[in-house]
Structures are given as structure tokens and as C-alpha cells.
Amino acid sequence: MKKFVLALAVMASASAVQAQPRPFTPRMPCGQIQQTVFASGAVVLSTGANTYDRYVRDRSFCQINEFIEAAWVPAQDTPQCPVYRCTDDDPFLFGD
Prior knowledge:
The protein is of the alpha+beta class. Helix content is 26%, strand content 25%. The longest helix has 14 residues, at 2-15.
């Protein structure tokens, strides 16, 4: 009976795990944003109340059919903090 109760308690605590909130870039200095991306390799950042995207350190964090592109996010100390994100738009494709 003790093992059953212990197993039940472990399962209950495991299901109570919640997702961590995304870093909110407007409240972070640009250097901290860039360091967060660099340290994680890839991270989802909130850039506004209802906006977010996935930013990466380099192309190795993109899918095989994706390319890297420059992006800018709002930061506490600058309106445009440079970071990178993955895109499936081919930078070498000119027009249709």
C-alpha cells in the first residue's frame, strides 16, 4: 500500500510541472538577449504582449531546408537588437 501511495504522489507531482515563461525582450538589455540566444542555441522570445518567435545562434539550429536571416527585436536599451532566426525563404532565389 505504501508503494502505491508513493507512486501516486510521484505521478501527481510530475503532472504539476508547468512551462517556463518566455523571456520578454522589451524588459531585457540587448546584450542579455544576445547572450540568452547564444547560451541556449535556440530560444523562443516574447517581443510584445502577444508576439513571439524562435531565435537562433547560428544555422545549425535551423531545419535542413531553412536558412538564417537577420532579425531585430525590441530591447530595454534599444528599439532594434540584432539576432538571427530561421526562415524557409531562399536568400539566393531572385523573384518568381
